[in-house]
Structures are given as C-alpha cells and as structure tokens.
Amino acid sequence: MIRNGTIEIGDAIVQVSGEGIPLVFVHGFTTTAEFWREQVETFSARYRVIRINLPGHGPSRHPQGRSYTIETFVEDVLEVYRALEIDAAILVGLSMGGTVAQSFTLAYPERVRALVLVGATPHGLGADVNVKNVLKAIDELGVVVASQNVIERSFGSAAGSRLIEFAKNEVAQTPTFVAREAIASLNASDSRPRLQEIRVPTLVVVGDEDIITPPSESKALAEGILNSQLEIVTKAGHFPMLEQPVAFNLLLGAFLTRQGIEPQHTSASTHARQNV
C-alpha cells in the first residue's frame, strides 16, 4: 500500500497524509488540492487524507491529448481509488469538485461511504459565473487574470489579503485549454434528474456570503438528496474550509461521527489554523 507523501497517479498529483478510513478531497475549477490545506492536520490524525490535484490543475500534468471534463475527472478519481487500494471512502468535493463527486457517486455508489458537497450546485455554477462570461473573460483577459478575477469575488468579507493572494497564485497554474473545456463541461452537467438516486449520507456546506454558488443552490442539493443535511457557515464565501476552517472542520467531524465513521481510539484532533 502507498503510504504518506506526494505521488503521481495517471495525470494527477495526489497528496496522502495519515492512515485509517480514507477521506478523498476533490477541489474546484482552476483551484488545487491546497485549498484543502486546513483539513490536513486535523483529519490526518484520525483518517487517511487524500487530496487530488485534478489533471490540468496545480502541479498535475496537462497533456493536450486528453479531455478535461466532469466525466473524465470522475475516471481520474476512480484511478486514484484503484492505485491507493481504496474500496470505499468519504468523498468531499468543492464547487466543480462537488459536481465530480456527485457524478462519481452516481456512477460508483459502492465506492462512497458518505458524501460531502461544499459550495456546490446540482447544475453548473451560480448566475455570477455564467459560462459565456467566463469564456469571454478568458479570451479577452487571459486565463490567469480571468481566474483571479473570479477568486476575488469568491471570498467573504472576513477573508484576509494573504489568503486571497494565496488563492490567486494557485489558480494561475491552470492552462487556458484546460479551463475552457472544464468550465464548458461543468456548465453542461446536470444532476437534478438523478439526485434522488444518491442514497449515501450527505453533508452539504455553503458559506452565507457565497455569490459563486449561492446558498439557494446548496439548499436545492440538500432538498434533492434524501439522506442529506445542509449547514451554512457564517462569515464565509465560496471557500468555507479555508475562510472558517475551525467551523468547517467541526461540521465535518460531527457529520462523520453521526454516520458512525469516526475511528475508535483516536488521538485528540488539532484545531486548524485560522487565516489572517
């Protein structure tokens, strides 16, 4: 079995920390596995934390001979499962990663013990990030500036400048051709007709100041998935796990405990660092 460290699986760079029941984290559009950095210390003390940099994002490879769609990202996640010998995991998806996580659960329900959807929707993105506007901005401004402009609108009022600069630097790594294909696929994805088929315990989390995927979208997810609960994180925008990590980690930890997924004989968890 592959232990801790950074490894390449297919076209994805994957970061593994800790041992135990696997927690698989999938990031969003143009973001990276580092957007889950505040969860590593807390959860790797009790779980096997697996953070995937999807192909074309962050340090992962971006060959032009492959596709960058929701469907192919689902297969990339499955490849990680197989390489790490994971039968089933708690699957956590942010934004576009939430769409990937929904699609993965529908395609491979036996592989998902519980589902966590953060700043996600059942269809595309919120009205503030219209696909036509995103593609136009990429064409006119370049993918780096276009992605960074979205990032500046993504955080809530409590986010500090260092956190925002971190996020802007991370999204600058995604090439134009990857971003264009991914956003088009995300816009076309629609799980609304099949949400009732998701039967695993599901936690839906959204920031109360999220304008990228507004709370109304998360409410629609929670209403469509039978065994689900909605949690709204105050003073947070699109990235509650970064903006309010202590609150987010408590919500995730409590959800896992309620599902009986909390490991026994665990060491005391360490509070995540607050950003400034």
From TrEMBL:
GO terms for cellular component: membrane. Signal peptide: none annotated. Coiled coil: none annotated. The keyword Hydrolase applies. InterPro entries: AB_hydrolase_1 (IPR000073), AB_hydrolase_fold (IPR029058), AB_hydrolase_sf (IPR050266). Residues 23-248 form the AB hydrolase-1 domain. Keywords: Hydrolase. GO terms for molecular function: hydrolase activity. This is Carboxylesterase. It comes from Tardiphaga robiniae.
